[in-house]
Write a structure and sequence with these properties.
Chain A: Pfam families: BPD_transp_1, OppC_N. Chain A: This is Peptide/nickel transport system permease protein. Chain A: The chain crosses the membrane at residues 32-54, 100-126, 146-173, 219-244, 264-283. The structure holds two protein chains of two kinds. By secondary structure, chain A is an all-alpha fold. Chain A has a single domain, classed as MetI-like (MetI-like fold). Chain A has helices spanning 9-15, 19-28, 31-48, 50-53, 90-126, 128-143, 146-157, 161-171, 174-188, 191-198, 203-239, 251-258, 267-294. In chain A, α7 runs antiparallel to α8 and α9 (174-188) runs antiparallel to α11 (203-239). The mean pLDDT of chain A is 85. Chain B is mostly helical. Chain B is 77% helix and 0% strand. Chain B has helices at residues 2-30, 33-38, 44-54, 60-72, 86-121, 126-140, 143-157, 173-181, 184-199, 202-209, 214-226, 228-251, 257-266, 270-298. Classes of the chains: A mainly alpha, B mainly alpha. Chains A and B meet through α6, α7, α11 and α13 of A and α1, α6, α7, α12 and α13 of B.
């Protein structure tokens, strides 16, 4: 760091750290958040640059090279993580699988986030009948068994990536609605909201530019939770054979395909499951960490 | 208290009706049931015959009303695949799922509550850190993967437990763990937070000041109050668990209602799927209703909300 006047220790002691500096310090001091963010960033890069990183075509079958073991179990470096029952390179499928998981997690969380936030904020802001209706809808949604409904709808509509994303997005909005309703209720009666209303700001303006910035930290935490939730659900649906369909490389599907050979080649199941576990763990660590560093009570 | 129960009951009934309507229309709007039933090779004429035979040509609301009134009498129609009344089919399979659910929630409570209490007694100790690690890792673990690992280790490598089936108590050990572990993190965190909160309260200080033994303070005074929110969480988790039983039952080939759901979905057995969605939701609705009533009984402050 360059030694300019601004970084003068004496000056800093007088003025104190800026809010931005304090936030950076809290982030760098939070182990879980850092680990989660690094793992997440690596997997994100892998997913984005999949065509450059994958050593083989993830769809290319080779009957001559079926179920070759990974390099640490006596395989060759040509297929570092071995090949599956159709001779497809396991590492390449794993790399493309990161795309499927992250895409489903991101878009499903986005859809459910928009629905849930709109409902929750409306309920918290307007109260009364609106609140009653939203609370009722949340109750109805919670009473519906997610896995069963998602399986049934995907089975009827056909298991394409779009259908799985849409179904998960339309089902997982409940936590957004619950959390955003509670957060909105908390800031609803603050002075700055009353001030904005008093100067004649429109309702969308009050909500979007006065209230949202103050409840956005809760929203980010729920986004990470629901991303993890959607990724796990997709994997479970695909594992049951009623999610993403072959030959798409989905980690849940890879576990399902490896299941039959589990007795002799347990790594076929272990590797994709471990990566799935790692991704969800990283997202959860990030979510927990973000909650810790952005919580208003830690700002002092 | 009675007003609270009646209000809460009214809400539960309303939710149940809405869920039944949504689950019915969801499957109705999603595709042509007659075509699905007839199979890919059927001619247009066959499909038309089936449509009239099963009444799919009537308006949807009429079909829903018909289905609902039969369902209220316990008649869910006949399974397309098994050719048996859906109600008896489900009743027969439900016992396995209910045993599994009861075992799963008991396992979760018996491990998570002591762990949460231990973590709260000494915050930031080794136990607290281990508990935190377990709860973070537990939430990230895909249940189907966890189940397969248990099968490989305990059924295949070690040979201690049977890999699948439901003929003895031993068959339920692995499914119970796989179903129960997912509920543990939430229960543990809530117990820990509740205990931490209660342990710093005035009446615990009073109990300590008058020299009550530590064990009595922890269990008679603190845990009794900290456990109240855990009751409703456990009820909610129990409802989710019945849904989660689909994955667990399919891994361990337990022929319960979850397995039936998976089979029926794969076979386009619409009446069975619709009935199962309704039955699973009803369990959730009943559990949360009972939990709310229990909560209101334990804690009078809850009755007003």
């Amino acid at each position: 760091m360059a030694h300019t006047n601004i970084n003068d220790p004496l000056l800093q002691e007088i003025t104190g750290p800026t809010p931005g500096q304090m936030l950076r310090r809290r982030i760098l001091g939070h182990q879980g958040l850092l680990i989660g963010a690094v793992v997440m960033a690596i997997l994100l890069i892998v997913a984005i640059f999949a065509p450059l990183l994958a050593p083989h075509d993830p769809y290319a079958q080779s009957l001559m090279h079926r179920m070759e073991p990974p390099v640490f179990l006596g395989g060759t470096w040509d297929h570092p993580l071995g090949t599956d029952h159709l001779g497809r390179d396991y590492l390449s499928r794993l790399i493309y699988g990161a795309r499927v998981s992250l895409m489903i997690g991101t878009i499903a969380a986005l859809i459910s986030g928009v629905i849930g936030t709109a409902m929750g904020v409306a309920a918290g802001y307007f109260g009364g009948r609106v609140d009653m209706v939203v609370t009722f809808l949340i109750n109805v949604r919670l009473a519906m068994p997610v896995v069963l409904v998602a399986l049934a709808v995907v089975a009827i509509m056909g298991g394409s990536l779009q259908v799985v994303i849409a179904v998960l997005g339309l089902l997982l909005w409940d936590r957004f609605a619950v959390v955003m309703r509670a957060s909105t209720l908390q800031v609803r009666r603050r002075e700055y909201v009353a001030a904005a209303q008093a100067i004649g700001a429109s309702t969308p303006r009050v909500i979007l530019s006065e209230m949202m910035p103050n409840i956005a930290n809760n929203l980010i935490v729920v986004v990470t939770l629901e991303m993890a939730h959607a990724i796990l659900l997709e994997a479970a649906l695909s594992f049951l054979g009623l999610g993403v369909q072959p030959p798409t490389p989905s980690w849940g599907l890879m576990v399902s395909e490896g299941k039959n050979m589990m007795l002799f080649e347990p790594w076929l199941v272990l590797i994709p499951g471990a990566v799935l576990f790692l991704l969800v763990l990283a997202i959860n660590l990030m979510g927990d960490g973000l909650r810790d560093v952005t919580a208003p009570e830690n700002r002092s | 208290m009675l007003t609270f129960i009646l209000k809460r009951l009214g809400l539960a009934v309303l939710v149940a009706f809405t869920v039944s309507f949504i689950s019915f229309s969801l499957l109705f709007l999603a595709g042509d049931p007659a075509a699905a039933l007839a199979g890919e090779t059927a001619s247009g004429e066959d499909i038309e015959t089936l449509r009239r035979l099963y009444g799919f040509d009537r308006p949807m609301l009429v079909q829903y009303g018909d289905w609902l009134f039969s369902a209220l009498r316990g008649d869910f129609g006949e399974s397309y695949y098994f050719r048996l009344p859906v109600a008896s089919l489900i009743a027969e399979r439900l016992s396995v799922t209910m045993i599994l659910g009861a075992c799963g929630i008991s396992f979760a409570l018996l491990t998570a509550v002591p762990l949460g209490v231990a973590a709260a007694i000494r915050p930031n100790s080794i136990i607290d850190r281990v508990a935190l690690f377990l709860s973070v890792a537990g939430q990230a673990m895909p249940s189907f993967w966890f189940g397969l690992i248990l099968i490989v280790v305990f059924a295949i490598k070690l040979g201690w437990l049977p890999p699948s089936g439901a003929s003895s108590a031993q068959h339920f050990i692995m499914p119970t763990i796989v179903l129960g572990y997912y509920a543990m993190p939430a229960i543990m965190r809530l117990t820990r937070a509740g205990m931490l909160d209660v342990l710093s309260s005035d009446y615990i200080r009073t109990a300590r000041a008058k020299g009550a033994p530590e064990g009595r303070i922890l269990f008679r005074h603190a845990l009794r109050n900290a456990i109240i929110p855990v009751v409703s969480l456990a009820a909610v988790q129990m409802g989710f668990m019945l849904g989660g039983s689909i994955v667990v039952e399919s891994i361990f080939a337990l022929h319960g209602a979850g397995y039936l759901a998976w089979e029926s979905i794969a076979r386009n057995d619409l009446p069975t799927v619709q009935a199962l969605i309704l039955v699973f939701s009803m369990f959730y609705i009943v559990f949360t209703f009972l939990a709310d009533v229990l909560n209101a009984w334990l804690d009078p402050r809850m009755r007003s909300s």
